[in-house]
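Look at one record.

>
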Amino acid sequence: MRLPTADEVEQLEDIEKQWAVKAMHHAETYFNLISHVDPSILKLTKIDDEILKDFEETFPEIDVLHLNEDHFKTPAYKEKWRQFINQYEKRVNEYNFGSLIRIDARDDYTEQNTMFGVRMQFYAVEIARNKKGLNDGLRQKK
């Protein structure tokens, strides 16, 4: 396997920075929204109810109040998530874009409370949190 050239490494670093900026902007926008608007009335996609039902059937063991990163990072869960995510390829815009996901629903995005994932994981978790009222306390803190 050949190592990347200095130019290729620089391009990869630029792409990584662009991804990080876009993911952070998305996280800031979303957190600002749920901090000021009743999260239970938000529609994150055109098919929120279907995503919620599918998520709850596929991952009944996931506690969306406080996420266990093993439910996202272990090889078995990565495969389970891959199957879940790929079914939305043609139905959800930016379904596989990188996203920041809050580990604990009661807190803001911080270094300790954030993990990396993809947009469908973000949607599944946040739709569930919104429907269950788990993000309501964020609005009341403001």
Summary: The helical segments are 6-36, 48-58, 70-73, 75-86, 119-132, 136-141. The CA atoms of residues 102 and 111 lie 10 Å apart. The mean pLDDT is 87. Residues 6-36 form the longest helix (31 residues).
